[in-house]
Amino acid sequence: MDTSMQLIWLRSDLRVHDNTALSAAAAVGPCVAVYLLSPEQWLEHDDAPCKVDFWLRNLAEMSQALGELNIPLLIRTAPRWDDAPKVLLELCQQLNIDAVHVNEEYGIHESRRDAAVAQALQAKGIQWRSYLDQLLFAPGTVLTKTGTYFQVFSQFRKVCYDRLHRSLPGLVSAPMVQSPLALDSDAVPSTVEGFETPGESLRALWPAGEAEARRRLDTFADAQIDYYKSERDFPAKPGTSQLSTYLAAGVISPRQCLHAALQSNQGEFESGKVGAVTWINELLWREFYKHILVGYPRVSRHRAFRPETEALAWRQAPDELAAWQQARTGLPIIDAAMRQLLETGWMHNRLRMVVAMFLTKNLLIDWREGERFFMRHLIDGDLAANNGGWQWSSSTGTDSAPYFRIFNPLSQSEKFDPEGIFIKHWLPELAELNKKDVHNPANLGGLFGVADYPSPIVNLSTSRTRALAAFKNLPSRQQDAGGGYE
């Protein structure tokens, strides 16, 4: 009798429903799941403690869901991804595994890891099966007419829409209950050394599990998506889906999100409800940056997408960098946004752009400092999206803001938090100020009980001039391509 089994290696796909590799493995024969703890690799990749905690909490939820399908979940440790081939090969030989099934991940280190594991397994006669799952389109299948990866989002989006009109990615059925195996699941650890456990208040903001992810998606698609375009830029309003954390860990899939958006919009991509169309565009932005990661590997290596910007004369300003990191720049919208990040592991998307432009333009500090700090604190930290956002804001990336487009934090604050509600929530020391003064307490000269709030660490006007000069002095000055940014 054939006693071989299938192994599903879980990574950023912590869900039972619409999980391509899991369903494929279970369809072949008896299935076992494994998750690798890789703390040294996570530290090297600047993964946030709250993000690792979120993974573990979702893994515990998934272990229970897999248990109901009689699929054991095993936990193994491979401190670095270089250890993965040996650890997985030993497990496969121990369990008489016929094939290992994975959902594709992207990035240089991920690709090298998977190639090394596949080679080690295949050398011993164990099959390697990988599947498209965390994207709607496989990288390399959405290309320009000359066969290159798109560098402008609007062009990429147009091709994606054409493809989606012709063939909509379907949802994958969940596995059936299999016959019980003589193998027990391992206990999922609640902590990993090197990553302190976040407070219960942060955990309460981000409950684990597929049921919570689907609840958020359903609530958004049913009640909020209509207002997404008009309210998504206002951080005091519940205008966003709050799903990025669940997408980053694979607790919900982009296919599930796309289907929910289309269902709310009578199947329309580009017409109907502007909120649904705008949100589908955001799903495609996520897609775009993943494709960039594959098509232009230098962005995985902490390199600028635009090579000429590597020559920028970034400032070494450790005190100003620390003030930015610690939410004491003296500019309320910046400090409120940074406190939101530090306390919740998340920041509103509009504010991510505002604080990134402030760091890279007004302070003229290297975007990589901000990218790293964000990854070390974001519960939804994702290399492609985080790198793409930082390079967009710093005018070093693909389809980025032209260098002379510099957000003014004061005008952004007045426009998107006009009543000061968001600022006062995160900066209670400014709660008594009126809605005019709260954006710029420096105008008050330390009166009215805000003496403890710091003065601005930089002059916005002169620092803007300094940034423009730095970009203009590049050997090959970046020009505005026109119409490339959204």
From TrEMBL:
Gene3D superfamilies in UniProt: 1.25.40.80, DNA Cyclobutane Dipyrimidine Photolyase, subunit A, domain 3, HUPs
Keywords, comma-separated and alphabetical: Chromophore, FAD, Flavoprotein, Lyase
Record site: Electron transfer via tryptophanyl radical: W314, W367, W390
Cofactor: FAD; (6R)-5,10-methylene-5,6,7,8-tetrahydrofolate
Ranges for domain Photolyase/cryptochrome alpha/beta: 4-136
PROSITE patterns documented for this protein: DNA_PHOTOLYASES_1_1, PHR_CRY_ALPHA_BETA
GO terms for biological process, alphabetical: photoreactive repair; response to light stimulus
Catalytic activity: cyclobutadipyrimidine (in DNA) = 2 pyrimidine residues (in DNA)
UniProt xrefs under SUPFAM superfamilies: Cryptochrome/photolyase FAD-binding domain, Cryptochrome/photolyase, N-terminal domain
Source organism, top-level taxon: Bacteria
Residues noted as binding FAD in the record, renumbered to the chain: 228, 240-244, 279, 282-289, 380-382
Pfam families the UniProt entry points to: DNA_photolyase, FAD_binding_7
Cofactor: how and how many bound: Binds 1 FAD per subunit.
InterPro entries for the chain: Crypto/Photolyase_FAD-like_sf, Crypto/Photolyase_N_sf, Cryptochr/Photolyase_FAD-bd, Cryptochrome/DNA_photolyase_1, DNA_photolyase_1_CS_C, DNA_photolyase_N, Rossmann-like_a/b/a_fold
GO MF terms held by the record: deoxyribodipyrimidine photo-lyase activity; DNA binding; FAD binding
UniProt-listed Enzyme Commission number(s): 4.1.99.3
Family: Belongs to the DNA photolyase class-1 family.
Function of the protein: Involved in repair of UV radiation-induced DNA damage. Catalyzes the light-dependent monomerization (300-600 nm) of cyclobutyl pyrimidine dimers (in cis-syn configuration), which are formed between adjacent bases on the same DNA strand upon exposure to ultraviolet radiation.
Protein name stated in the entry: Deoxyribodipyrimidine photo-lyase
This protein's encoding gene: phrB
